[in-house]
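Pilot study result, target chain (96 residues):
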Amino acid sequence: MSNKKDVSIEATLRTGLGKSYTRKLRRNGKVPAVLNAKGQSTLLELDPKLLSKAWRDCDKQFDLLVDGKSQRVRITELQVDPVKRLALHVDLAPLT
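Predicted structure:
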């Protein structure tokens, strides 16, 4: 049995696409993310501080809150800037 803490991250749906939009997100302190579920991709933006806590403390699994709905997800890929050590992008998958 693990004594890991549960983390809940609130995500916002992202409307913009492309490199320039994701660069703006990062400048504003957000991390672009994609939730891949059943052949559908949902574009999201996350708080980097909570994301790093989930990566460190929760075995890469956490509760994702989107539009008031909670879903247990896991991190499948995390892209990190090699110099600044900041999250650039994260891919998520739901746990079944």
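One observation from the pilot: The longest helix spans residues 48-57. A full batch analysis is planned for the follow-on phase.
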